[in-house]
Amino acid sequence: MRQPVSIDFETIFRHAPVGMCVSYNRVIQASNRALDLMFGYEPGALAGQSFSVLYPSPDEFERTGARIVPIMNACGRYSDERIMKRANQELFWCHVSGSGLIPADAHAAGIWTFDDLSAKRPVTAELTPREREIAALLVEGKTSKLIARQVGLSPRTVEMHRAKLMRKFAAATSSELVNRLLGVTRQAPSPAPAAPRAEAAPA
């Protein structure tokens, strides 16, 4: 009978195929190889760094942190899809999931995973921090009223940002905008000019 293989959890963490890290008070304590590679950092360089280095702007870091708190405190878990930033300043879509380790204290300690979505969902337009935030919530299927409550804006202001996103992505409808954000559809290329018609040969 084969002996059970001993489980080395540190090795599993280091070599897991998905980006992972452990955080205390939104500071990365340890990250694995997949996370370092995903964000373009040398091995171990993220240890001791605030999560803010992974966000496109300080505002997005603060607002996302505030949005996480009530959800994490209520159920101990959180996940979303958002635009994040690599070390070379490249922006990319990322699926982020986390579990809190201390009940009712969302940011005290957590385990987080990151999945790079850029291969199927490239960032194709230059967006403001607020537009990136609203785009991420639209992808989740949230209405303007719900987004307004979550981000502390009026529904009319959210609609204004949605309209700007629709123009930037050349989307005619809200559902088309979401599909463009998800990478399901692309803006149709301009039609090629018609070939000149051959003239009829003389009889």
UniProtKB/TrEMBL annotation:
Keywords: DNA-binding, Transcription, Transcription regulation. The keyword DNA-binding applies. The keyword DNA-binding applies. It holds the Pfam family GerE. Residues 120-185 form the HTH luxR-type domain. PROSITE patterns: HTH_LUXR_2. It comes from the Bacteria. Gene3D superfamilies: PAS domain, Winged helix-like DNA-binding domain superfamily/Winged helix DNA-binding domain. This is PAS domain S-box-containing protein.
